[in-house]
Amino acid sequence: MDSPDTDWADVRLHVVTGKGGTGKTTVAAALALALASGGRKVLLVEVEGRQGIAQIFDLPPLPYEERRIAVAPSGGDVYALAIDPEEAMLEYMEMFYGMRRAGRALTKMGIVDFATTVAPGFRDVLVTGKTTEAVRRRGKNGRRIYDAVVLDAPPTGRITRFLNVTKEVAGLARVGPIKNHSDLVSGVVKSPETAVHFVTLLEEMPVQETLDGIAELRAAGLPAGGVFINMVRQSLLPQAALDTAVKGRFDAGELALGLKAAGVTDGAQATALAEALAEEVVEHAHRTELERAERETLAGAGLTRYELPLLADGVDLAGLYELAESMRTQGAA
C-alpha cells in the first residue's frame, strides 16, 4: 500500500521514547492505530517486559508472537509483539549458528542472563534486531509484511545507548555474526526509514529531559522525529482574563457581583466563593503561563510538535482512538 501523505510518509520504523510518567506507551499505541488507519498493517512492539500494550488494550499478557490486537479507524490492523530477550536469543542462535536446542540448554543454565548482564548492549542488539527484522521482512510477493513498525522503546535517558547498537557491541565482537547483525540493525536505525519520537508533558523536568535526549540522539547520528506533547489541558478562560490574573489584577469583588447577578449565591457566601474562585483562576493562569514558556522551549529544538489532549475519562480504548484521530488530524500519521 502506498504511503499516506503525512509528516512521516517515508518512515517505516517509529521509535517512541519519553520520560517515565509522560504516557510513552499510550502514545505509541495511539500512533500504531493512527498509522494503521485506512487499511494498513502495523506492528506495535514493546521491549521492557512490562506488558504495557496488553494493559492499554485490556488484553491478557502477550506471548512472544505477533498477533492482531486491534482494528484501526477506516480499516487496517494493529499487531503486537512483546519481545522476550531469551526467545530472541534462541532465534538468534538458530539463525546464525543452527543451535536452537543448545540455546535452550544454555537458557536453563542461565547463560542468557549472564551474557546480557556482562554485556548489556547484547540484550539491546537482540531486541532491536527482532524489531528491525520486522521492518525488513517481506512476503512471498516481495511486499513488506508491515507498512510500519512502532517501537515502545526505553525511556529518554537510555534511548541513545539502546539504539546505538554498533557502539555498544564494539567491545563484545569486532567480527563475526554478532558484529554483522549489529551492523544490519544499525543500518535500519540510522536510515531515513526510522524516526525517534519523544513524548513529553508541558513541565520543566520532562521538557529538559526531552531536549537532552534530542541533543544526545543528534550527536550519535540517530534520526530525531517529532515531539508529542501529551495530556494538554485546554484553557478555560479567555486570554485577557489570564493576563490580568498573572499580573495580580484579577478582581474578586467583580466576580462576586457577577455571581450574585447570576443568582448563584448572595451576600457573604458570594464573596467567599468569589475569593476561592479567584485563587483558582490565578493558579490556572500561572500554570498556563508556565506551559506557554515550555512550549517555546520545545520549539527551540526545531522538531515538529503535536499536542494531544488530556483524556477526561482516562486512557481506555475509546481514548486511544481519540488520540489516534488527533494525531491524524495534525499530520503525524
UniProtKB/TrEMBL annotation:
<protein>
    <recommendedName>
        <fullName>ArsA/GET3 Anion-transporting ATPase-like domain-containing protein</fullName>
    </recommendedName>
</protein>
<dbReference type="GO" id="GO:0005524">
    <property type="term" value="F:ATP binding"/>
</dbReference>
<dbReference type="InterPro" id="IPR025723">
    <property type="entry name" value="ArsA/GET3_ATPase-like"/>
</dbReference>
<dbReference type="GO" id="GO:0016887">
    <property type="term" value="F:ATP hydrolysis activity"/>
</dbReference>
<dbReference type="InterPro" id="IPR027417">
    <property type="entry name" value="P-loop_NTPase"/>
</dbReference>
<dbReference type="InterPro" id="IPR016300">
    <property type="entry name" value="ATPase_ArsA/GET3"/>
</dbReference>
<dbReference type="Pfam" id="PF02374">
    <property type="entry name" value="ArsA_ATPase"/>
</dbReference>
<feature type="domain" description="ArsA/GET3 Anion-transporting ATPase-like">
    <location>
        <begin position="13"/>
        <end position="170"/>
    </location>
</feature>
